[in-house]
Amino acid sequence: MGAVTQVLRWAAGAHDLPEDQDFDDRVLLDLIGQHALSGRLQHRLPTGPPWLRDRLGGPVAAMHADTLALADAHVRAVERIVAALGEQPPPVVVKGIATGLLTGEKHLLRCGDIDLVCAGGEPLIETLTRLGYERTRAPFLHELGEFTREGVEIDVHAYVPVPGYGAVRHADLTPPEHTKTWYQPRRALSMHRIRHRRLVDGAVTVGRVSVPDPCLLTIVLCAHAFLNFTNMWSLSHRAKPYVKLAELADLHALVQHPAFDTPRFLTLVEDLDAGDAVGWAGWASTVLLGTNPLPVPASTGPFPRCLWWDFWVRFPVDEEALLRPGWFDLATVMPLLPGRIELDTGRPAPPWTVTVRRDADRVTVTVGLPEQTDAATERGRVDFGGCGTEWVLSHGRLTAVGGHDICDLLPGRRVRLRYRIPRGGGEMLVGVAEQDSSGALLSAVLLPATWQPADEAGGR
């Protein structure tokens, strides 16, 4: 581990003292924020190396003061929402401030957005609107939307997803030799849903804020951390590490909570199909913090990871990279892939083309779609590793999120994307998928490619 990650691990509870090495304090402070460790680090500094106190004591104290102020704003926001809901069941806060409220330890408070799991989305969303919150993100999977007011962001959740590998661990994730196309079978994932009615069973109310009991909150944090780790592609548009150390550190605090009941926890792991998530969290805590606090043996891997959509790979784990923001290194990924991957859905992939053209410090990617399709939605993805785009074409309307300069729909059903990137050649991934009206994938193709002064490749 490098000097910066040594400090991060120690702040999160690892026993090994960080060595006095040369590093950029600004880089470290930024990572402390991303790992939500300001309170924990401030709490440990008095017993830590003097050089660390001298260098970081002031900035870390200021960071944690800001966290406490934001936590107070979050508590007030939730209390106001609960009051405005009246007789409606109050939502449950998961992640964020939950561990700090449950334990009563201020140094464990951490804040990002406010994650609320609701009994019913419509009453809560109507209440948020009435209180002056504006929708800032559309519904997506279990998230019913993001709502923002005066710097406070609230994510409304229908449930907490608990992912599991299901059949993925039994599948062969090594592409066949001497083949141009890897027809990867569909992997049936398990995904249990923890709904509001389960979260309120044993929930603890602090003031007017409800949080799960220590056993359920532990599983929620394991599930969230495991989901971030496995879904590699979901991080490409967000500056966040694969593993947030504060989540692993929270597990240690929750297991030590007086109300943590090991038999209840083990029953919940079984009932919620959380074995993969909890086993992985035990492994991550052992590797990064030195011990597994959970009363379940740590898994040993390997841990397949979702490359895109329903495409899975056995991707080597770089412990240092897990703690840094950014996405995976394409130079590491490309040797693991054949020239083309197609999801074996039983439906042939449609004919499509991709043209990649380099012009000075810009790269233009043009995806040509078939003239007609019976799919409800077409979607695509372009990734360079450091930046990327996911676009959706539905009913003739194109939307996109990502790091592109331009994304538009040209005549002849061609999607054009333009990026500003460094000089020289490079590697990229381009993909196209079709979905039915329910959002299920009908077909999907993933194409590794390179960008040079001019490069053309076919989707079929």
Secondary-structure class: alpha+beta
Strand order of the largest sheet: 7-13-22-21-16-17-18
Which residue ranges are poorly predicted, with pLDDT under 50 across at least 5 consecutive positions?
A: 456-460
Indicate the mean pLDDT.
90
The geometry reads as globular
Residue share in helices? 25-40%
Q: How much of the residues is beta strand, in percent?
A: 25-35%
Note the total helix count. Answer: 13
Quick recap of the structure?
With about 450 residues, the chain is α+β, with helices and mostly antiparallel strands. It contains 13 helices and 23 strands. About 30% of the residues lie in helices and about 30% in strands.
Could you explain the architecture of this structure?
The protein has 460 residues and is an alpha+beta fold. The chain has helices at residues 3-11, 25-34, 38-44, 50-85, 98-103, 121-130, 196-199, 214-230, 245-255, 262-271, 275-289, 319-322, 330-333; strands at 92-94, 114-117, 134-137, 143-149, 152-157, 160-164, 181-185, 190-194, 204-206, 209-211, 305-308, 311-313, 340-344, 353-359, 362-368, 377-383, 388-394, 397-402, 406-410, 414-420, 426-435, 441-451, 454-458. It has a seven-stranded mixed beta sheet with strand order 7-13-22-21-16-17-18, with no helix packed on it. Strand 14 (353-359) and strand 15 (362-368) form a beta hairpin. Helix 8 (214-230) packs antiparallel against helix 9 (245-255). The two termini are 43 Å apart. The model is unreliable at 456-460 (pLDDT under 50).
